[in-house]
Every structure is written in structure tokens, then in C-alpha cells.
TrEMBL record:
UniProt source species: Athene cunicularia
The protein's name: non-specific serine/threonine protein kinase
Family stated for the protein in its record: Belongs to the protein kinase superfamily. STE Ser/Thr protein kinase family. STE20 subfamily.
GO molecular function: ATP binding; protein serine/threonine kinase activity
Gene: STK10
Pfam families named among the record's database cross-references: Pkinase, PKK
Length: 919
């Protein structure tokens, strides 16, 4: 076997695998990955290698979520991650290998759905796995039969975990289940309302749909276009089983409980584990039998017993029966993503599959499903199975057949019992008009027979039942015999089915359906990438805006803080300069006053000297004998007076000096107080300007942020509309192709019917003519010429009848074509209506979101303005308090100055500046 060694990039040498490139099991529904079988080089353990081609790092990041979730999950019913590698431009995800393959592939391999015991075991184990995932806040979001894998031991494992990562209880819309089958109604609504999250209850809905798929091979609404399914999910009642009577009441009740359109009342996985349908499951024997049967050795036998179809120019002979043995089937481990078309292997012929042996008792032999000899629900009864008779040739009457066909067969056998003409194949159809007159021998009764036969055959063609030609063409039967061992007991199962000529068409339809799903998945993947890029862009814009807001606010505050510091520094410098000027002025004024006082004092002393001279002169004017006594008295008085006057003069000078100094000090204090008041007013005004600027900036920033968020919301909805229009265009294109295929298939079928009708008419004409001649021979009446005339009339009647049949077929084809065109137009109109509703709903939702955003912004601005008033009041109160404190300080300072002399070197006290940021 060809193999190539994969060098590990993520991991170590112990996790290196040998990948067998020859084993390409399955390709992803979107064409993005394929799965190979891998084998560990050292341990020999098998693994499934999911190989994903990644073109960029962004695509690689998309798959990291799945890797992280798989790495954190450790449960017996969830596939385990064995390793992850990036090599040769591809991401290799090594996961646990499940030999049993996927459930959907197993059903296709066995050509039937699962039995109820098998569904019970799978349901029980799926609920256990979901309970584990939901407890870790992980939503699977892609539950379907293709993601339920079977092990050799009869257990299931959930694969393909694209769900929400750990820690998220709610989820946004994702790329899960594009076909729409397992999607819950709340998930469907997310297509137009992206901000509406859903929770783990969506997995419960998908579980119910998956159980229906396992019971019926196909999920509900599988025959519809994928986009029409979304409309069904959103507007119709929850789906149910097509044949409820075949299933137990507990199963039907379980589906009814799980498929609740209201997620609030829908039960959880833990609650469903207590449901009677799964609570009593203790063994997985049913699944072990299923895996053994699917992996069993298959013996195929083809029986081709087609009768010869006589023609005027050629005849067809039956081919000999073929018999061959093929290898045990291997169902793929990972099934195709998306929707599966109807099974091409199911019998399409209206006569149904050939049934052999004992009737099955599990209620699974529905229309289009092969019959099984033994009872699938009771595979353990090997003794009974071994006693089953070999397949015979007994045919099972199909659903489309009328029960009266057996009467017609009996009638024909009676009519032709003694003739040489072999009886033709049974004519399914209505009861013959001549049924009660089979013993009549008149010619009119013979005509009644031919008319009755004509009516029967014509009616058969009108009702779409099988014709003579059809009955001969659908005699090819495929028998499959499977032999396998369960618990040491050998079991043999034989199935029979009609090989349909439409298998190629079904396979083509399956391929086209996969292509459509792939196109939609690629669109959705691109949409998610564009959405992620837009979200990243918006997040970056918001972060940049917030950083700019913070920088603007910091710049404004820093500017005003700097202005306040400069103002305070200037004030301090001015006050210090005023103090210095005051000291200098005091010294100069004191010096000037002292000089003046010294001059005045000198003058005063001169005056005293003059006064002394005057006193002496007055004494000298007295007689000589009086002079001596008066001189002494006068001089003593003068000395005393001089001392008093000098003291008064000096005191007056000192008082004048002190008064002048006090006036200068008071004037200087007044100037300093005025300057401090002026500076305080400037600081407070600057603080007001600072806070007003901050408030204006806050308001502007909130308005700008609102406009940005509003524009981002518009961008989001613009992208949604753009992606929705692209998706709608793709849907219309697919619908157009679908309608074109339906019309082409109808044309081909009509052409085949039109080409087959002359052959059928010739064969029928020969048969009817032979029957008529035989009836004339049996009831010989009249001469040979009369018989020839009757035969001629019969031939003319046959020609008219065949012409009428051809005309009727043409009219029927025209009616079918008109109906098909009307149906195609109806499909297109329905799709257009659905798309218009989606667009209208998206526009309405955008309008509501924008309106809600504006209302929230207005409410926020109102609350902000309401909170702004107390902030302004608090600022004014603080500024007024500082003014009062300053005035109180000045008042106390004046009172202190009134009690003690002012010091020439005393400096004014400054009011410290405190920032109003906190306000």
C-alpha cells in the first residue's frame, strides 16, 4: 500500500503517523477537506486524518476552534483528538478512528433505516455526550446522522465539533447544517437577526431531527430545496414520523418532547435522559449487530428474467442472471456534510422489491425500502434465521397496484384456458367489465372483452400504472446476502430489491445537490470571513477612538493644569516682588523721613538756642542785682521746658515715622490682598474653563462615539444585505437550474414514453388481435368472410383506439408540461417571496436597531446632563468656599496687624491651589 510519512509540525515525534494516501474515504461537503486513514508509526493505532487545505493564516485560525474544543473534551461518546499537524500547506487533524463509519453511510449501505432498539441506544449515548458538552458550555450545532460515528464495540462517538468554545453559554449564527434539516427554529431566525443568540437547546432540536433521519433514512423535507426547508422550519409545525403507527408510543412522545419550537420549554439533555424511551437502555447489543451487519461479507446476485419484447423489426431477449461476490462494505467514517439526496438504491419501480421468505416484523418495510428475510430487531435469534426458506419468486404487491388486478388475471386465465396462445403478463388495473360474463360465447361478448381490455390498458396508462412493456422491463432483481457473526453466532441476512433505471439520475441528483450545498457553504464561509474582518475593523476603530478620546482628555487637563501652575507661580512671583518693593519703599521712606526729622530736629535745636538767647536777653534787661537770681531761675525753667519740648518733638517725629510706616504697610497689604483676590478669581475662572472644556469634550466624545457605533451598525447591516443578496442570487440560480432539470427530466421522460408507446401499441395490438381471433375461433359463428369483416372492423377500431391513445398521451404530456412549468414558476415565486420577506425583515430589524440605538443614546445623554448639574454646583461651592477662606484669612490678618506692629520682612500667606479634577 502506498504511504508517505507526515512530519509533525504541531506535536512531537511520538505522535507521528503514517498516512495512507490511497485511502481517500470521504470528501467534505464544501470541498475543503478529505479524510484519510492513518496509522501511528510506533503504536500501530489507527486514526482518521482530516486533511484541510489552508490558503491563509485566517483560514487556519478558523479551524483552531475545533482543535481546541476537541482537545478539551474527554468523553467516551466524543471522538478524541490524537494530534494536529501543519505540513505541505495542509492542516492535518488526527482524530480517533471509528471502524463502524457514520450512521448515514451505514443506512445507505444496508438500504434501510435503523430499528427502534438501535435508535434507542444511539439516542441514549448521544444524550450522554450532549449533556457533557453542554455542561462545558459547548454547543455542537451540527448534529446529524453523518456526524454520529460507530465503533466496533457498538458505541457511538460524536464527530465534527464546530460548536461554541468553552465559556460561552450563548452562540451566534454559524455555518452549521446549511441544508437546514437539523437547524432549530431559533437558529433559522439568526439569518436575519445576527444579534439574537441561541443556547444549547438548539442541539436538542437537532437530536430529534437526527432520530427521524435514522428512522426514515432521510431527514424531514429532504425532497425540498435547502432554502425552502428553512421556511418550513420557521413557519410549519414540528416534523413527525411519516408512519407513526410503525413506531412505539414512547418514541413518538420523545420526538414530540424534543421537537418543541419554543426553546424555553424544550427540555435539556439531562431531562431527556430520564425519558422512558432511553432510561431503560442498558445494552448496546443492537448497535453491535448493526455494525456487524454493515461490515459483513456481501454476496450479490442479479436475477434478470425480462420477457422478450416483440417488435416489428427487432426483439429483445433477457440477459442471463449474474452473480458475484464483493468485499465487505466499508462505510465512510465521516459522511458528506449537508443534505443527502434520496437513496438511489431504493426500489423505484411501482411493482416494488421482490420479497422472499418471512415477513419482517420491525415495521421498517416502507415504500422504497428492501425487504429483509429475518427480523432486524431480533438478530440474536439465529436459529430462526437459519431456518428461513431461500428466496423464492413470489412478488409483493406494490403500493401503486390496485387489488383488483388478481381478478383480471383470473378472468384472462378462464378466457384462454383452452387456447394455444400463452397468457400475457398480468394487467394491473381496474376490474374488467366482462368479469361477470366469462361464460358467454357470443361475438358481442367478445367485443366486450376487447373493449374491456382496451379500457383497462388505457386506464392503466392514465393512472400511471405499469404497462405490458414496463412489467417486462422491471424484472431485474438484486439479491444481497450478508453473513456475519454476533456473540459467536453466525447470522445470514438476505435482501432483495429491484434495480431501478433511475439510479444514475439519482446519483446525478445527489452530485448536483452536493454541488449546490458546496456553493452555499463557500458563500457562507466567505460571509463569515467578511463578517470577521468587518468586526476586527470596527473593534480597531473603537479602540483607536477611545485612545484618541483619552489622549484628548489628558491633553486638555494637562493644558489647564499647566495654566493653573503658571498662574500660581506668577502670583507668587508678583507677591514676592511686591513684598520686596514694599521693604525697599519702607527703607527709603524711613530714611527720607529720618533725614527730614533730623533737619527738623536741627531747626528745633536752633529754635531752642534762639529761645535761650531770648531768655538771656530778657534776663539781661533786668537790673543787675536781679539778673543773677532770675538768670538761674529762668535757665532752670528753660532747661526744663527745653527738655519737655525736645521730648515732645522727638515723640512727635517718632509717631509721624511710625504712622508713615504703618500707612505704607497697610497700603502694601491692600495691594497684596487685591492681587491675591485677582489671582484667585483668575484661578477659579481657569478652573471653570477647565471643567467646562472637559464637559464639552465629554459630550462631544459621546456624540462621536454614538455616530461611530451607528455607522458601524449600518456597515454591519450593509454587509448583511450584500451577503444576503449574493446568497439570494445564488439561490435563484440554483432554483433556476433545479427547475430546468425538472423540465428536462420531464421532457426526456415524455420522449421515452412517446417513443415507447408505438412499440407497446404494436405488442398490444398483436396480443389483442391474437386474443380476438382466438375468441372468434372458440366461439365460431358466421362465415369466414364475416369473421374477416369482424377482424377488419376490429383492426380499424384498434387503429382508432391507438390514435386516441396517442392523442391522449400528447394532451397528457402537454398538461404535465404546463403543470411542471406552473410548479417551477410557483417554486420561483415562493423563493422570491421568502427572499423578499428576509430582506424586509432585515430592513425592519435594522430600523429597529437604529431607533433603539438613538433612544439609548438620548437616554444616556439625558442622564449625563442630569449628573452634570450636581457637578457644576459642587464646583461652584468649592470655589466659593475658597473665597470665604481667603476673606477670613485677610480679616484675621488685619486683626492681627492691629494688635502687633507689622514686621518689614513679613510675607503674605498664599492660598494653596487644589485641582478640581475630582469634582
Amino acid at each position: 500500500m502506498q504511504h508517505q510519512e507526515c512530519q509533525p509540525v504541531l506535536g512531537n515525534e511520538n505522535t507521528a503517523f503514517l498516512v495512507y494516501l490511497a485511502r481517500r474515504d470521504v470528501q467534505g461537503g464544501d470541498g475543503s477537506h478529505f479524510v484519510l486513514q492513518a496509522k501511528n508509526k510506533e503504536t500501530g493505532a489507527l486514526a482518521a486524518a482530516k486533511v484541510i487545505e489552508t490558503k491563509s493564516e485566517d483560514e487556519l485560525e478558523d479551524y483552531m476552534v475545533e482543535i481546541e474544543i476537541l482537545a478539551t473534551c474527554n468523553h467516551r461518546h466524543i471522538v478524541k483528538l490524537l494530534g494536529a499537524f501543519y505540513w505541505d500547506g495542509k492542516l492535518w487533524i488526527m482524530i480517533e478512528f471509528c471502524p463502524g463509519g457514520a450512521v448515514d453511510a451505514t443506512m445507505l449501505e444496508l438500504d434501510r433505516g435503523l430499528t427502534e432498539p438501535q435508535i434507542q441506544v444511539i439516542c441514549r449515548q448521544m444524550l450522554e455526550a450532549l449533556h457533557y458538552l453542554h455542561s462545558k458550555k459547548i454547543i455542537h450545532r451540527d448534529l446529524k446522522a453523518g456526524n454520529v460515528l460507530l465503533t466496533q464495540d457498538g458505541d457511538i462517538k460524536l464527530g465534527e465539533l464546530p460548536g461554541t468554545g468553552t465559556g460561552q453559554a450563548l452562540a451566534r449564527p454559524s455555518s452549521s447544517s446549511l441544508g437546514g434539516r437539523p437547524m432549530a427554529p431559533e437558529v433559522v431566525m439568526c439569518e436575519t437577526m445576527k444579534d439574537t443568540p441561541y443556547d444549547y437547546k438548539a442541539d436538542i432540536w437537532s437530536l430529534g431531527i437526527t432520530l427521524i433521519e435514522m428512522a426514515q433514512i432521510e431527514p424531514p423535507h429532504h425532497e425540498l430545496n435547502p432554502m425552502r426547508v428553512l421556511l418550513k422550519i420557521a413557519k410549519s409545525d414540528p416534523p413527525t414520523l411519516s408512519c407513526p403507527s410503525k413506531w412505539s408510543l414512547e418514541f413518538r412522545d420523545f420526538l414530540k418532547t424534543a421537537l418543541d419550537k419554543n426553546p424555553e420549554t424544550r427540555p435539556s439533555a439531562a431531562q431527556l435522559l430520564e425519558h422512558p424511551f432511553v432510561s431503560k437502555v442498558t445494552s448496546n447489543r443492537a448497535l453491535r449487530e448493526l455494525v456487524a451487519e454493515a461490515k459483513a461479507e456481501v454476496m450479490e446476485e442479479i436475477e434478470d428474467s425480462r420477457d422478450e419484447v416483440e417488435d416489428d423489426d427487432s426483439s429483445e431477449s433477457a440477459s442471463p442472471p449474474g452473480k458475484h461476490k464483493r468485499d465487505p462494505s466499508e462505510a465512510s467514517q465521516l459522511s458528506f456534510d449537508g443534505e443527502k439526496p434520496p437513496d438511489s438504491s431504493l426500489a423505484k419501480a411501482v411493482n416494488g422489491p421482490v420479497r422472499t421468505g418471512k415477513e419482517t416484523t420491525d415495521g421498517q418495510s416502507d415504500k422504497g425500502k428492501p425487504d429483509i428475510i429475518s427480523q432486524p430487531g431480533q438478530l440474536g435469534n439465529s436459529a430462526e434465521r437459519d431456518k428461513q426458506p431461500r428466496p423464492g419468486s413470489k412478488e409483493r404487491k406494490s403500493i401503486g397496484e390496485r387489488p383488483e388486478s388478481s381478478h383480471l388475471e383470473n378472468f384472462m386465465e378462464e378466457k384462454l384456458a383452452n387456447g394455444s396462445l400463452d397468457p400475457p403478463a398480468p394487467f394491473p388495473g381496474s376490474r374488467s367489465k366482462g368479469d361477470s360474463d366469462s361464460g358467454s360465447t357470443s361475438a358481442s361478448e367478445s367485443m366486450d372483452l376487447t373493449i374491456s381490455l382496451s379500457a383497462d390498458l388505457s386506464l392503466n396508462r392514465e393512472s400511471g400504472s405499469i404497462s405490458l412493456k414496463d412489467s417486462r422491463m422491471h424484472k431485474k432483481t438484486l439479491k444481497r446476502t450478508r453473513k456475519f457473526v454476533v456473540d459467536g453466532v453466525e447470522v445470514s441476512v438476505t435482501t432483495s430489491k429491484i434495480i431501478s433505471e433511475d439510479e444514475k439520475k439519482d446519483e446525478e441528483m445527489r452530485f448536483l445537490r452536493r454541488q449546490e450545498l458546496r456553493e452555499l457553504r463557500l458563500l457562507q464561509k466567505e460571509e463569515h470571513r467578511n463578517q470577521a474582518q468587518l468586526n476586527s475593523k470596527h473593534q480597531l476603530q473603537l479602540e483607536q477612538m477611545l485612545r484618541r478620546f483619552e489622549q484628548e482628555m489628558t491633553t486638555k487637563k494637562k493644558f489647564y493644569d499647566t495654566e493653573l501652575e503658571n498662574l500660581e507661580r506668577q502670583q507668587k512671583q508678583q507677591i514676592e516682588k511686591m513684598e520686596q518693593d514694599h521693604s525697599l519703599r519702607r527703607r527709603e521712606e524711613a530714611k527720607r523721613i529720618r533725614l527730614e526729622q533730623e533737619r527738623d530736629h536741627v531747626k528745633f535745636l536752633e529754635q531752642l538756642k534762639q529761645m535761650k538767647k531770648e531768655v538771656k536777653n530778657e534776663v539781661e534787661k533786668l537790673p543787675r542785682q536781679q539778673r543773677k537770681g532770675n538768670m538761674k531761675v529762668k535757665m532752670d525753667d528753660f532747661a526744663q521746658k527745653k527738655q519737655t519740648m525736645e521730648q515732645e518733638f522727638l515723640a512727635k517725629q517718632k509717631e509721624d515715622l511710625e504712622l508713615a510706616m504703618k500707612n505704607i504697610t497697610a497700603q502694601n497689604k491692600k495691594e497684596i490682598c487685591d492681587k491675591e483676590r485677582e489671582c484667585l478669581n483668575k484661578k477659579q475662572q481657569l478652573m471653570r474653563d477647565r471643567e467646562a472644556c472637559i464637559w464639552d469634550l465629554e459630550e462631544h466624545q459621546q456624540q462621536e462615539k454614538h455616530q461611530l457605533v451607528k455607522q458601524q451598525l449600518k456597515d454591519q447591516y450593509f454587509l448583511q444585505r450584500h451577503e444576503l443578496l449574493r446568497k439570494h442570487e445564488k439561490e435563484r440560480e440554483q432554483m433556476q437550474r433545479y427547475n430546468q432539470r425538472m423540465l428536462e427530466q420531464l421532457k426526456i421522460r415524455q420522449q421515452q414514453e412517446k417513443a415507447r408507446l408505438p412499440k407497446i401499441q404494436r405488442s398490444e395490438g398483436k396480443t389483442r388481435m391474437a386474443m380476438y381471433k382466438k375468441s372468434l375461433h372458440i366461439h365460431s359463428s358466421g362465415s369466414a368472410s364475416e369473421q374477416r369483416e369482424k377482424i377488419k372492423q376490429f383492426a380499424q377500431q384498434e387503429e382508432k383506439r391507438q390514435k386516441a391513445e396517442r392523442l391522449h398521451q400528447q394532451q397528457k404530456h402537454e398538461t404535465q408540461m404546463k403543470d411542471m412549468q406552473a410548479q417551477c414558476e410557483s417554486n420561483t415565486n415562493e423563493l422570491q417571496q421568502l427572499q423578499n420577506e428576509k430582506c424586509h425583515l432585515l430592513i425592519e430589524h435594522e430600523t429597529q436597531k437604529l431607533k433603539s440605538l438613538d433612544e439609548n443614546h438620548n437616554q444616556h445623554m439625558k442622564e449625563w446632563r442630569d449628573k452634570l448639574r450636581p457637578r457644576k454646583k459642587a464646583l461652584e461651592d468649592e470655589l466659593n468656599q475658597k473665597k470665604r477662606e481667603q476673606e477670613m484669612f485677610f480679616k484675621l490678618s488685619e486683626e492681627a496687624d492691629g494688635q502687633m506692629p507689622a514686621s518689614p520682612t513679613k510675607h503674605a500667606k498664599f492660598v494653596p491651589f487644589s485641582s478640581a479634577e475630582s469634582s
